[in-house]
Amino acid sequence: MVVVRLRSLAAGCVIAAATVALVAHLAASSRHSLPAAARSQDPETITVAIAAEPLQLDPHDARDTPSALVNFHIYDRLVETGPAGELLPGLAESWRLLPDGVTYHFYLRRNVTFHDGEPLDAGAVVANIERFLDDASTLARRELLAPYVETVRALDAYTVEIRLARPFGPFLRHLAHESLGIVSPRSIQDAREGKPFRPVGTGPFKLHRWAPGDRVVLVRRHDDWRRLEGASTLVFRAIPEGSGRAIALETGAVDIVYPLDPVHVERMRDVDGVAAEVVPGQRVIYAALNLARPPLDRREVRQALNLAVDVDAIGRHLLFGVAHRLDSPLAPATWGYAPVLPYRYDPGAARELLREAAAELQRPLALWSPSARYLHDRHVAEAVAAYLREVGLDVRIQLYEWGTYLGLIDRSDQWDIAILGWTPATGEAGMGLRPLYHSGERGNHSGYASEAVDRLLDEADFEPDTERRRLLYAKAQEVIAADAPVIFLYAVDIAYGRREEISGVVVHPNEILDLRQARKLPVEAGLRASFEEARG
Amino acid sequence: MNTTLERALGVIAVLAGVILGSFLLLQWLPGDPAQLYAGEEATDEEVALIRRKMGLDQPVWIQLGRHAMRLLQGDLGLSLRSGRPVREELAPRLAVTASLAAGAAVIGVAFAVPAALIVNAHPGGFVSRAIDWVSLSVLSLPVYWLGLGLILIFGVRLGWFVPEGTGRWHEYILPAIALGAHTGAATARVLAASISDVLGAAYVRTALGKGLSSKDAMVRHVLPNALIPAVTYFSMEIGKLFGGAVLTESVFSLNGLGRYLVLSIAFRDYPAVVGATVIVAVGVTLANAAADALCRWLDPRARDRG
């Protein structure tokens, strides 16, 4: 009896083990049904590890960076941004602003087709712009165009006229935003009829496969109008953990990791076959000061706080050298940036300015910070608090998970100092200044209201002349710097890692990884190239 | 029959509690999915637009009611974050986590049973002490630390396993070891103690006195009885395996249920969180029911009691 039971137990174990193995095998193979081309050894395939999976391949409805990254390769925009932030012709070969200051004419490139064979013509562009203007539209990026554009129409097969409701200087920057990719009119029609959106553009890559939760595979089209050359397949995989991405690069499981956590940059430089690159970014990290809470309503107190924090030391010791002290409210990589800030670390001067305020201050200052949102935000908050204590202030730190923080910071008036970050979506000064420093704007957490700044920013908004706009922004930066509604901290570099045989990677300051001309050299050729580089 | 009905009702109550609990917890947590989706750079209009699109402009009770109705029809709803059906998002991830947990369970059993037998056969021997040491060290190591160690040694240094990215079954070996080691060590200790208890029982002494070889006595009398507490303990470990999978998946970059759950909580994506929680709850309930059945099969008394 017992023996029988044991035998069947043993048999049961074997069956269970076999089932488990089978399930595991099936599960694994179902995850692996991608073309053999998606292996890292293939010279025509570049595998990229990104931090999260893309959510939305409809560019007009996408808000997350991974989607922007993938969509950048599938779609083209009327106007493109160059690596230095300059505006370049895209699907529009050229354009003209009529003397009325509100009417733009865009002259489209000929002989461009969408991946589905539809021609790119004025009608297609009009359908794209009109999609944003529809009142019932719930496109996540509607606000990039809807508030500014009054009408759009085709003047002939290759000329589009866009009339604005009022003069708007940064308009071309909005068109160059990665969400303004021009989509096939057939896809727009499908989406309007409630069918699933088909990601079809005019870009150098078309979608081959999208396995949500696993990877996106793009293949190069043969009839690319730019005739760009490079690897024929791009595979985007999500590896959320920074160390996971770094290890995948080291072992060769992936060819590029983006972003590379700064903590790994130094180490990667010592690893054979791997290169770590750092490029200037547009993200700024600052500490908003709650102007509604005395003594932060006093300008000299806020200036003193700016003198009290040794940002250089924070960048060097806490942030692996990828953070650079701000000398303007904007990062140097932002269009329209002007170096204006007079603040340098000077605890003596800060203490002097603060003597009176610190004596009056009967309560500790509440310093809020998100945890694990920005690079080492927690440690930065601790360092800032420590510097402020050095000059005689009592500071208490409160840390929050990001979702909680974002929900609280708008509603609560219990904070004095709040660590925040900002990246101007369109890569230019207007988007870097207006939301943070114009009175009544959502991102203006300090509650800063300066008539002079409001006027300068409004004027710049209406100013179509690029150079005059730049001057207006420079003036605004000067006033904001002097008023110090925030503690200006640092601009953050973008770091990425690549296998040495990968070349042709470009990172735009707006955090877009441009792989349109990326290629993988066979290993021997890669070695030769690096020898030649070393010799030359 | 009655007990079966009682249990079924119990399971339903647990699931209802899990759904209500996970939904309400997310509602009470500060943070707004629309704002998180829109990002800090969004304008008020954009956030309002996204909130309307996600159906978050409705009162909480209506959202809960609607979601409950959908769940009753077997529909897990659409993820707020991606707009895709939660069921489609969960399926591949469940396969990953189930493979991982199953692999870990197999490794746990494969370690626990021989280890417990050896420890009892040669108490104080070299191998027994080695097993004790290994078990204790594993129990005191957090799973992510063990995982990172395994990656460093076997993945990066020795290059035996590419830590991730191949998508083949051996992608699961290291994570299953990392996750299963803890279960194996703990179960081995429970089983060893239980075996040594049973060895002292009168019926075992009788069997040995009757002239049964100690091997036969072990197989026929000791093991079946000693396994009962170990199985009960192991069934409780299954729940922990799902919990541990969160960390293991992160360390090994596996796209499993655990990681999906963490991501969804960070985004306040309630349909996804409720869906994933329900799946885990069902999994743990099923594992416990299976352990119950196994125990009853091992222990005739429990079987007769019904």
Task: Give a written overview of the molecule.
- The complex is a heterodimer of chains A (536) and B (306).
- Chain A has 536 residues and is an alpha+beta fold.
- In chain A, 36% of the residues lie in helices and 22% in strands.
- Chain A has helices at 2-31, 65-74, 122-133, 171-176, 185-192, 242-251, 262-269, 299-308, 311-318, 347-360, 377-390, 402-411, 429-437, 451-462, 466-483, 523-535, and strands at 45-50, 79-81, 87-89, 92-97, 103-108, 149-156, 159-164, 205-211, 215-220, 233-238, 256-258, 274-289, 323-325, 365-370, 395-400, 417-422, 486-499, 502-503, 506-507, 513-514, 519-520.
- In chain A, the strands form 5 sheets. In chain A, strands 1, 8, 9, 10, 11, 12, 13, 14, 15, 16 and 17 form an 11-stranded mixed sheet that branches.
- Chain B is flat, with a radius of gyration of 24 Å.
- At the A-B interface, helix 1, helix 6, helix 12 and strand 16 of A face helix 2, helix 3, helix 5, helix 7 and helix 10 of B.
Give me some keywords for this one.
heterodimer; A: 536 residues; alpha+beta; eleven-stranded mixed beta sheet; four-stranded antiparallel beta sheet; 21 strands; disordered N terminus; B: 306 residues; mainly alpha; 13 helices; 79% helix
Determine the strand fraction of chain B and express it as a percent band.
under 5%
Sheet with the most strands, sense and barrel status of chain A: 11 strands, mixed
Termini separation of chain A comes to 83 Å
Based on CA atoms alone, the radius of gyration of chain B comes out at 24 Å
Given the structure, what is the number of helices of chain A?
16
